[in-house]
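New to this. Please check this protein:
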Amino acid sequence: MWGWGRLVAPAVVLAVLVWRLGTGPFLDGLRSVDGPTLAAAVALIAATTVCCAWRWTIVARGLGIELSLSAAVAAYYRALFLNVTLPGGIVGDVHRGLSHGRDVSDVGRALRSVGWERFAGQVVQVLLTGVVLLALPSPVRSSMPLVVVAVVIAGFGVALIPRARPGGARSAWARVRSALASDIHDGLLARGAWRRIALASALVVAGHALTFLIAARAAGTTAPLARMVPIALFVTMAMVLPNIGGWGPREGVAAWVFGAAGLGAGRGVATAVVYGIMVFVACLPGAVILVASWFRRTRPTEPTEPPLRERTAHA
């Protein structure tokens, strides 16, 4: 039921948008894309991908598995392409975790490094978005105090996990708690790693928000920057929800927040469409990497010719 729900819910969102707004906003978004917009997307996504890969190497090395930055960048591009083309939005991350795990002969630890890397990035994204939504006017500003309280409580809970004592080694909960505490301490907090993880995550959030602002300008939005930045951060944060190749929640949230801000729900959908096209084009290098890695795996290995001395002896 959960698997079907992850597919049906985004499709329902898109169907409701077409029913209420028609296909006009979607077509407007398609017509708004131009060369300079796509070039900016390619540059920004390249920068954010390198930052994400850097964050992943920090977490992976903290958990005791080797991962070079070049390999991480290639795997991240490949994962982004899979995420924006396949339903669910996480297939690419699972794939890069499994691939890295096979390379280092430790699939479990590699998958955990991917999970903690994504978790750390989303924590920083939530915190930065909360600060901006508190400081600048937005349609959700009145609800932010309750959100801040919930985030603080959750933060205290996560912070207490590494300090928890394992207790008597024997209940399933004790083992899970000990494993979580060890991963957080080694992967996210060891040797000041959290500073580099926070820096990389902040750069990623800024890059995604800037990409959305460019998409909004391309779609015809002329609202001032102070009004658009909270909207950009709010919509990009909603993109972690289950989706179909990136589509669904992004368009729904953009339609709602643009409408609530007095900018027009249709303009929000058009902006989300432009953003989706920008991200898809910028992730196309991942398709090249995916095909190249597939050819490397399927290419038969050529038998090595025995040394001349051995051939002479057999003769």
About this structure: The chain has one domain: 2-162+180-294. Residues 2-162+180-294 form one domain.
